[in-house]
Specification:
Radius of gyration: 24 Å
Helix content: 55-70%
Shape: elongated
Number of strands: 0
Number of helices: 4
Distance between the termini: 70 Å
Oligomer: single chain
Largest sheet: none
Length: about 90
């Protein structure tokens, strides 16, 4: 990926503490067979520790969402809707 090109998705990922683009950085031929090799190499380099960190990160995000859900339920009053069906003659 040329240095002058910046992608919004990459910027968002970096802001959230993620590194994106290993394959793109190493892709110089732009041939699908070469990209496939780069992807497989990147996947082979993933360790148990990498996966564990990803799992921990997901758990933290889910826990935050559950807390937000609980707070939302405490703050909002229940809304009861009664729906009746009218019969027209």
């Amino acid at each position: 990926m040329p240095k002058e090109k910046k992608y919004k998705l990459d910027e968002i990922a970096l802001q959230m503490g993620h590194e994106v683009g290993e394959v793109a950085e190493k892709n110089h031929s732009f041939k699908i067979t070469d990209v496939e090799v780069l992807v497989n190499n990147a996947l082979d380099a993933v360790t148990k520790e990498n996966w564990a960190k990803c799992g921990d990160h997901c758990t933290k995000i889910q826990d935050k969402d559950l807390v937000k859900e609980g707070l939302r339920d405490e703050i909002l009053e229940p809304i009861i809707l009664t729906i009746s069906r009218r019969q027209f003659k």
